[in-house]
Amino acid sequence: MLANRTCSRRPHQTASARAFAHQNSSRATPASPILQVRQTLVVCCVCILVLVGTLPRTVFASGPSATLFDISQVADGVFVHTGRHVGIAHGERGDSANAGFIVGTKCVAVVDSGGAIEVGKALHQAIKERSALPICYVINTHIHFDHVLGNAAFAGPTVKFVGHTELAEALVNNREFFGENFAKELGGSSPSEIVEPTLNVEDTLQLDIGDRLLTLQAVPLAHSHTDLTVFDEQTKTLFSGDLVFIDRLPIVDGSLRGWLAWITEARTRPIQRVVPGHGPSSAPWPHGVQSLEAYLSVLLTDGRDAVRNGVTLEEAIATMSRSAARKWLVNDRHRRNVSKVYRELEWE
Ligand SMILES: [Zn+2]
After folding, report:
1. Which residues of the chain have pLDDT under 50?
2. Where would I find the beta strands (DSSP E) of the chain?
3. 224 C-alpha to center of ligand 1: Å?
4. Which domains does the chain have, with CATH numbers?
């Protein structure tokens, strides 16, 4: 509760300052020079005490852990850490995705664990600061490293790992890749410690975390082949994983048409807000998905035109939908998207 702690002190400090000012202004007679010196000393001492009193929290709030790990409450009992908009080549890529948790009356469910062990540990610590309840579920929204590499930070006998029915196999198949490419993010631990789900969702699964139901839905090929959404029935909050990108360029790693079909279906659902895989901690629904849908629709239209008009894959990669990509941050993977989309649409 770093932000809350810092904020909660401000009214107290303001009230103290006001009370102090009131005491001084209520004096009926002017103070003597000696008294004025004493008052000045008292004021200085009080200022130093106030400063010293705030120092540990101020330093903590602006230190690495707070900078790394801001948490905001987006709805009653729903908390989100927002990742940074950094590219895959960036040194701090382990903290590039959103991660969060939902607190019931029985236990806590974590949704995504970050892209590094350190991020997972920071999330775990943030949960302990907000709830004494045990963590019962760690739910991964899909296979990509920035959502799963923090899993080991939560491993324990009472914690169940949950994922799309294809996720466990995908994690096992990617262990070597993760080990070779994400040694820093794994913090010296072996990729064999990346925890895979034991509770697999083939279609829909409901979890009860105590007076609170979470509906998990496995999605057919869309952003990836392992997408899983988490819907908090109490606050109508949807954790979409990377089925929703905001601000940062979406990555097509599954099926463009499948992704657009998911958006069309999800648009009509009674969702209050979405927690995207990348972007702000939450956004209203369906407004939060509009930019993504626009970008994917341009890729579909331009991709079909390119295939129909005999544009080669290389030409398409060099030229296609570039103005649509420029509207997004960290958009260096647009060319890769075009390549993926072209090859999908080629076989329509
Ligand atoms: Zn992803």
Report:
1. 1-66
2. 72-75, 78-81, 99-103, 108-111, 135-139, 160-164, 199-201, 204-208, 213-218, 228-232, 237-245, 273-278, 283-284
3. 7
4. 2-62 (no CATH), 71-236 (3.60.15.30)
